[in-house]
Amino acid sequence: MMTHKEETMSQHLSDNASSPQKIGVREFRGNLTAYLRQVRQGSTILVTSHDQVVAELRPPASSYGNPPIFSGALNENSGICF
Q1: Strand 52-57 with 45-49, pairing
Q2: Residue 39's Cα: distance from chain center in Å?
Q3: Which of 4, 9, 12, 15 is most buried by its number of CB atoms within 10 A?
Q4: Polar residues composition bias: which ranges (predicted)?
C-alpha cells in the first residue's frame, strides 16, 4: 500500500511520462524507496545538486546476470560456433 506522498509522486510521474522527473539529492535521499519503485516501473529520474544533473536513474537496458543470447557463429577464432 502506497502512502499519500508516494501516490502523489506516482501520479506526477505518470503525468510526465514523456520527460524525466528532476529531483534534488535531499528529496531523493529522503524518499529513496519510493523513487526506486518508480524506476522499477519504467520511469526515468534525474537527480540534481545545485541545479546540475548528477545522476540519471532508469531501468537497466537488459537484465543483468543473464548470459547474452547469441545467434550464429561469433567468428572462427573465438572457438564458439552455434
Answers
A1: antiparallel
A2: 4
A3: 9
A4: 10-21
Show the cell assigned to 77: 577464432
Give the global pTM.
0.56
Confidence at residue 2, expressed as pLDDT on a 0 to 100 scale? 58
Report d(CA 61, CA 12) in Å as an integer: 24
Per-run averaged pLDDT (10 residues), the chain, 82 residues: 59 62 95 94 94 92 61 50 43
| Alpha carbon distance 57, 29 (integer Å) | 13
Beta strand 21-24 with 52-57: parallel, antiparallel or unpaired?
unpaired
Q: Dihedral, CA atoms, 68, 46, 28, 9, nearest 10 degrees? A: -100
pLDDT of the residue at 80: 46
Q: Show the domains of the chain with their CATH numbers.
A: 4-57 (3.40.1620)
